[in-house]
Amino acid sequence: MKILYLNGSPKGDNSVTLQYLLYLKKKFPDHDYKVWHIAQKIKSIEKQPDLFQEILKDVKSAEGIIWGFPLYCLLLPSQFKRFIELIFEGGKDVQDKFKGKYTVALSTSIHFYDHTCHNYMQAICDDLDMKYVGKFSADTWDILNRKNRPTWLAFGKKFFSAIQDTKPTIKSFMPLLSRDFSYIPTNSSKKIQLNGKKLVLIVDNQDSTSNIGKMIEQFQSSFGTSISIYSHENIDLKFPCIGCMKCGYDNRCSYDGKDGFNEFWRNHLMDADIIVFAGEMKDRYLSSQWKKFLDRAYFRNHTPSFTGKQFGMLISGPLSQNPNLKEIIQGFAEFQQMNLSGIITDEFGDSTDIDALILNFAEELIYNVKQKFIAPHSFHGVASQKIFRDDVYGRLRFVCQADHRHYKTNGYYQSFPQNNKVFKKINRKMMFLSRFKKFRTQLYKRIADELVRPFKKLVAAPYR
């Protein structure tokens, strides 16, 4: 059968993810495999309609399609995201080429938000009315371990069997429904003072006739003094991230001096008190231009840029129907050690309601920055920090030396549980005593009281 591999890695033949396909091909050589290096050739695909049509011709003739990609910043690389946009921009004729095709998604990563990436990809496949068989989210080095290879081969065999036997598949994502609504803001007499705080607003669409353009203007007019607004069109961002990892040594991107993005990030965002992003939903995310912007921020590697800052977003589109995007936003904020003060959309209420929400959002940002309020991080932030801490301490240390220096200087490695001498001593003693049934009986009678005792002491204390 004909299997088409759409390669989402900008590294082309040097893609680690591609090696998984080549190993599958080695073990199942009877199928006809074809590879398109989509991410690597995205500029040519955009500029050459004949090339895009050639890819679509292979899509139409394929019996199975594999979307393969590395994870970049909680999603696909921006180059692959742009290809997906081209599919939807092409209309029904283009989208119908994918309809009914059996498909799977393959990724390689260190499992940092691989679930949001695969949720996105499955939703795209559902939107294209494809037959989604499943995902395979591999640790980058899995295939090098003899014990892990059978799992990948079993997944491939399941995919081939689904095609051959025309097995039914399940859809997991409903189509997004956008309301026909034109936001008309009104002037507010109330003005909020920045009081010397620096607020930076980054936008990808300043079209004053669009809802997001009007939301941006309304947010800007909420303040008594001007705020710094930067559009993607005016930021000197020429190149997408290609995953070269040169930045791992000293946070210096290979594009330093070739465009102005890294300088912009350092000079305008890292010293801001408040950062707000604004954009329209495009398919199941924001625009590929936004993805390009965030991918390039990887020159900071796994070191947060915005610790202690306030963050928020203005979004035009049905965000409530797209919880995966909300998960991505929350994950980005907490990984960067920011406080997510809010996300304002145009999906509910009338113009007066949205006016009030935007004004309240602006007030919330200023209140939180004055109070230095950073909400306790949830799983999004705690888990991501531990994943990076463990990998940078171990297998990524020589590649991500800038991360290692930052983590070592700022005490990240002190959070290893095995390094806590107090708990090591307590555990040795308690594990020995718990061997005795009489001790365990008394322990479980008192454990609830003992756990809460220091908290009650704090609450009862008059001045603490």
UniProtKB/TrEMBL annotation:
NADPH-dependent FMN reductase-like domain location: 1-135
Keyword check for Flavoprotein: yes
Keywords annotated in UniProt: Flavoprotein, FMN
Keyword field contains Flavoprotein: yes
Domain of life: Archaea
Residue ranges of the TM segments: none
Protein name: NADPH-dependent FMN reductase-like domain-containing protein
One Pfam family of this chain: FMN_red
